[in-house]
Amino acid sequence: MANDDFIGWMTGIQQTMEDALARLLPNPESAPQRLHEAMRYSTLDGGKRVRPLLVHAAGELVSANPEHLARIGAAVEMIHAYSLVHDDMPCMDDDVLRRGKPTCHVAFDDATALLVGDALQTLAFDVLATPLDGVAPAAQLEMVRTLARASGHGGMAGGQAIDLASVGQTLSLPELEYMHCLKTGALIRAAVLLGALAGTPLSAEETERLDHFAKRIGLAFQVVDDVLDVDADTATLGKTAGKDAANDKPTYVSLMGLAEARAFARELRDEAFAALDGFGPAAQRLKDLADYIVARSF
Ligand code: GRG
Predict the structure, then answer these.
(1) 168-173: long-range contacts, CB 8 A cutoff, minimum separation 24
(2) Where along the chain do its domains lie?
(3) Which family is it part of (predicted)?
(4) In whole angstroms, how large is the CA radius of gyration of the chain?
């Protein structure tokens, strides 16, 4: 379970990220005002900031500059915020609430929501490509490429396409895993790799082990999300969930059952931990975060 030191660290990073995002997002009083307001509405004041937390924890492993990590974390969070805005639109999941408030297209309108996603995505790359003092240009270029690949057709957008095509279908566990590795796993993996690129370079073998950690934790995040969805459905609707209740999509719980899905999340966490063996105490934040992600489903 999370200790006080970890909770204090997490709260501090969440505040740092709120400040960094508030600074980097466009001024709500400048034109085009409605777009700027909607970008801030969709990004600020909400969310657990799991991806920036992973950027910081991986960055600590390589003694990266915390100010650089805040910028990198902001870029990843902007991609995440854009994906949620588009995911909520009527042409995708058609959701009216996100983070306890009306979704962007409800609070503003569809066209604005589309533009918010576009503008957040390009701002993310602007932020990430702005030179970071003391970071080798080649390492920064690698960060840009890593984030682009994680977001595009071979990552998040591709996973979303597979997910949309799976409505009403039966997927096997390997097919479900492949979809989630792209849809949510790719960005989580990118967050870890970007943090690690910001400091003292790791060996290829160390990067490989960190990447394995990131893949396992990315999948655990999705399994936990499925478990939490069932808990929420059961609490509010009094039903046992099978497929994603609202969207008729297969989930880990529908394919494995609730108890097995919880056990699978723990197994993934343990595999993620094992991948960090050999990094020593510097990897403790990453382990604490992995624990925090999985403990949400207990
Ligand atoms: C539209 C290209 C495009 C992609 C959308 C990530 C995604 C792809 C859709 C999100 C749909 C969703 C609710 C997936 C479940 C897992 C997930 C990513 C939940 C939301 O992320 P959190 O829990 O959210 O990190 P907060 O609000 O804490 O930031």
Answers:
(1) 168/248, 169/250, 170/250, 171/250, 171/255, 173/255, 173/256
(2) 4-295
(3) Belongs to the FPP/GGPP synthase family.
(4) 19
201 DSSP assignment: P
The model carries a pTM of 0.94
Span 117-154, pLDDT tens digits: 999 999 999 999 999 999 999 999 999 999 999 999 99
Percent of the chain with pLDDT strictly greater than 90 = 87
Query: Which atom of ligand 1 lies nearest, measured to the CA of 163?
Result: 8
- The pair of structure tokens assigned to 268 is 């993934």
Give me the interface pTM, i.e. the ipTM: 0.92
pLDDT tens-digit readout, 159-185: 999 999 988 888 899 999 999 999 999
**What atom of ligand 1 comes closest to residue 92's alpha carbon?**
1
Q: Which atom of ligand 1 is nearest to the CA of 93?
A: 11
Query: Tell me: the pLDDT tens digits for 78-105?
Result: 999 999 999 999 999 999 999 999 999 9
Q: What is the DSSP letter of 280?
A: G
Whether 224 contacts 294, CB under 8 Å: yes
Say which residue the tokens 């200790």 belong to: 3
User: How much distance in Å is there from the Cα of 80 to the middle of ligand 1?
Assistant: 7
What is the architecture of the domain spanning 4-295?
Orthogonal Bundle (1.10)
**156 Cβ inside 6 Å of ligand 1:** yes
